[in-house]
Write a structure and sequence with these properties.
By secondary structure, this protein is an alpha+beta fold.
Length: 773
């Protein structure tokens, strides 16, 4: 069983259109336009990849430098030094790996069927490389055998163009290639097949049992040149007889040989489907009917230019503008399209479904991470896609035997992390006026909320204790403290949905139960603390520890006692009261950000980017700096947010302090740099922070624009002195989604010293529906 977990400070303030055609062009006041740097996040533990994709594309093509180990989650790490080949599916920024389907290896010399170890690239088909270049929609690299590889994409197809030196060469399709934890881990693959049709189309299918256990992938691949000979290989790399045109088994490969590979470029086009080979063939016919690689590249670049132009910024440093452009790019990679051109998709019930015209299905919803900032950002900059995803999550909730998902991948619920945070995305969408049939999802959501007999996955364990005791005992279920707190947040989200569909009694019950988080925060010591089934607390408590019995299991999810103490998002004033009032809460926050940055030896690597005990490199506390706004100390929020923006991100491969997690780390940067953040997404409001750029313009669609100006801004001027909205004084330290989406000008006046802005109780953000008097 895969556990429900994943895997120092970085140095980092012109109108810039994020997404002009490459190369960058000049923009207002002589500033150079920023281009996304696709290598940001490919080093350290960012786990991003630099290959081409369309925005939210189904095919995410790119180089694989390694497929084993934690830092190979995306298939690429900038330090690996050699490339195995180019596969068609990747995950961006995750802490667990999968995908890497249909590896294409263009090379010369004797045929090698194994890649060899990353530290011994000469022992297999790996190749060292140089002259690597990546931009949205296009990737190019020179391999050591002299092959120049170029890649681009459509939504469902990957396009390759290989320039070989004169003489023979070959292309290996390694259909056994997939993500592994260790190089010798035997990943289970079933029902694999390869077939070469009379028209020269190579098709294949397989079922992979890794993270998304039992997911299916089908492909259809065509070549611009007919190979001079073809060799198929079965399980154990056993060669099949000469003349074979198909293979069946588990771990299959096929080699395509060209006597004069360098005579002219060899192009490949590959369509994929999760439904069947016919869907993959249809992708080729509909999206890549010819061999015009340059036209496809231009179309992909134009698509990215359009999407990235949705935010333009002026001011800051060149590096900060590059970080902003790159962060926005990473926010538009996932969730990924998961539907064939004819509307067929693989449902969460294992059945093929046909979507109504105009609808879309998506996968790679990293909801434990992305409900916090990515999905709120998409409701602003991608409202139409946010609506498509809302309706898709309703369908997935209806289809899945587990109800609302938490980490669905390729039609499978992985059960990764904790909770069922699809309900947060749905409740937020409902609160923001996104039209969808929320009532259709309610029966399955209600079962998850109240029915202990509903099937559980790792992410939902302990519900019976939660229902009966009001908390999850640490001596019964692992990660009990975090589960209690996050189940409480999901109760808050489900209460919103219940009210929306007319289930008022359920809504009242869920709102009350959403305060269960208090049952694992011991007011006597002011910390989130493991509690046992008999009601007693762990007596030898140490807030830096991750569990009362670290040899068996953890009490927190990718966190420790310090970080879990501030996990609550929806009932901040209740949390403040639990600590004894504003002054005590502010002091506790001060201690949090100033405590020694020590961790136990068994701490997971996800706890990274420490500021005191605050861990910016992981999700549980990414709202914590904004909590100062609720206790009357907004200047401390402004200073900390600005510090995190400038110190936790940099324009380098290791420029993301933790896993990017399908865009969540990037979304925190984008929203915070704009000057506001959704502490509680379900509330549909944003807490004001400290805008990084002098000016930002956001395209809201339908001819509306949001312009955020920071007058008197500078590296040493992070403090908000006053705010106006559309020319009128705005004393509140928050703004609603509805106001923002009307468009207009949000103007901050910045200064070098704290001011009284947002201190008064009447100007603090609402929480739990409560506006301080």
């Amino acid at each position: 069983m895969i556990t429900a977990n994943r895997r120092r400070l970085l140095a980092g303030a012109g109108m810039v259109a994020l997404g002009n055609a490459w190369p960058a062009v000049a923009a207002g006041q002589g500033d150079a336009a920023a281009r996304p740097d696709l290598f940001i996040g490919t080093g350290g533990h960012g786990h991003t990849f630099p290959g081409p994709s369309m925005p939210f594309g189904m095919v995410q093509l790119g180089p694989d430098t390694n497929n084993a180990g934690w830092d190979a989650c995306s298939g690429y790490h900038v330090d690996d030094g050699s490339i195995m080949g180019f596969s068609h599916t990747h995950l961006s920024g995750t802490g667990i790996g999968d995908m890497l389907d249909v590896l294409v290896v263009p090379t010369r010399g004797p045929l090698q069927l194994q890649p060899g170890a990353v530290d011994r690239p000469d022992e297999g088909y790996r190749q060292r490389f140089s002259d690597e270049h990546a931009e949205p929609g296009y990737y190019r690299v020179k391999l050591e055998t002299g092959v120049l590889a170029e890649l681009t994409v459509t939504e469902r197809t990957g396009l390759h163009r290989y320039h070989f030196p004169a003489g023979p060469g070959h292309i290996l399709i390694d259909f056994a290639h997939c993500k592994q934890e260790k190089p010798d881990e035997p990943i289970r693959i079933e029902n694999a097949s390869l077939d070469l049709a009379e028209d020269g189309t190579l098709t294949g299918s397989r079922q992979v049992f890794r993270w998304a256990e039992g997911r299916c992938i089908h492909f259809a691949l065509q070549m611009s040149r007919k190979p001079d000979r073809v060799a198929f290989f079965g399980d154990g790399d056993k060669p099949l007889p000469d003349g074979a045109r198909s293979a069946k088994g588990q771990r299959l490969k096929v080699a395509l040989f060209f006597d004069d590979a360098g005579a002219r470029p060899i192009q490949l086009r590959t369509g994929i489907s999760a439904v069947d080979v016919a869907g993959a063939r249809a992708a080729l016919a509909g999206e890549a009917p010819g061999w015009n690689f340059d036209a496809a590249r231009a179309a992909a670049g134009a698509a990215w230019s359009k999407e990235l132009a949705g935010i333009a910024v002026r001011g800051g440093t060149a590096d900060q503008r590059r970080i902003m452009a790159s962060a926005l790019y990473h926010c538009l990679l996932a969730p990924q399209l998961f539907v064939d051109r004819d509307g067929r998709t693989m449902g969460m019930d294992g059945k093929v479904h046909s979507l109504p015209p105009g609808e879309r299905a998506f996968t790679a919803y990293s909801l434990w991470d992305t409900y916090r900032a990515l999905h709120p950002l998409l409701t602003i900059i991608q409202p139409d896609r946010a609506a498509l995803m809302t309706r898709d999550l309703i369908r997935q909730t209806q289809q899945s035997p587990y109800g609302p998902p938490v980490w669905p991948l390729q039609g499978k619920e992985t059960g990764c992390m904790i909770g069922w945070h699809a309900v947060s995305v749905l409740a937020e969408a409902q609160a923001k006026g996104i039209k969808a049939d929320y009532a259709a999802a309610w029966p399955a959501i209600r079962r998850r909320a109240f029915d202990p007999a509903m099937p559980d996955v790792d992410s939902t364990l302990g519900r019976n204790f939660y229902y009966d005791l009001g908390y999850i005992p640490a001596d019964k279920i692992w990660e009990s403290v975090s589960r209690t707190q996050e189940y409480a947040y999901d109760d808050w989200a489900m209460a919103r949905l219940a009210q929306a569909v007319g289930a008022s009694e359920d809504a009242t019950r869920l709102r009350g139960r959403s305060r269960n988080y208090r049952n694992v925060i011991d007011p006597a010591i002011g910390f989130a603390r493991p509690r046992f089934a008999d009601g007693s607390w762990w007596k030898d408590y140490d807030p830096i520890q991750i569990g009362h019995d670290p040899k068996r299991h953890r009490d927190y999810t990718e966190a420790n006692g310090w970080q879990a103490t501030f996990l609550t998002q929806h009932d901040i004033y209740g949390l403040i009261d639990h600590f004894g009032g504003d002054a005590a809460f502010e002091k506790k926050l001060d201690s949090f950000f100033n405590a020694p940055s020590t961790l136990p030896d068994n701490a997971p690597p996800d706890i990274s980017g420490l500021v005191g005990q605050y861990a910016h490199g992981n999700e549980p506390d990414q709202h914590a700096a904004y909590l100062y706004a609720y206790c009357g100390a907004p200047a401390k929020a402004q200073a900390m947010v600005r510090w995190l923006l400038t110190e936790m991100y940099k324009a380098a491969p290791d420029g993301v302090i933790g896993n990017d997690d399908c865009g969540q780390m990037s979304a925190w940067f984008v929203l915070s740099a704009l000057g506001f953040y959704p502490v509680d997404p379900v509330s549909a409001l944003y807490v004001l922070g400290s805008p990084l750029f002098d000016e930002a313009t956001v395209d809201l669609g339908q001819g509306r624009r949001l312009v955020v100006r920071a007058q008197g801004n500078g590296p040493d001027r992070p403090y908000v002195q006053s705010v106006t909205w559309n020319g009128r004084a705005h004393s509140r330290n928050w703004i609603s989604h509805d106001m923002l989406m009307q468009g207009g000008e949000l103007v901050f006046v910045m200064g070098a010293r704290p001011s009284g802005f947002g201190v008064a109780k009447r100007d603090r953000p609402p929480s739990f529906g409560i506006q301080p008097a």
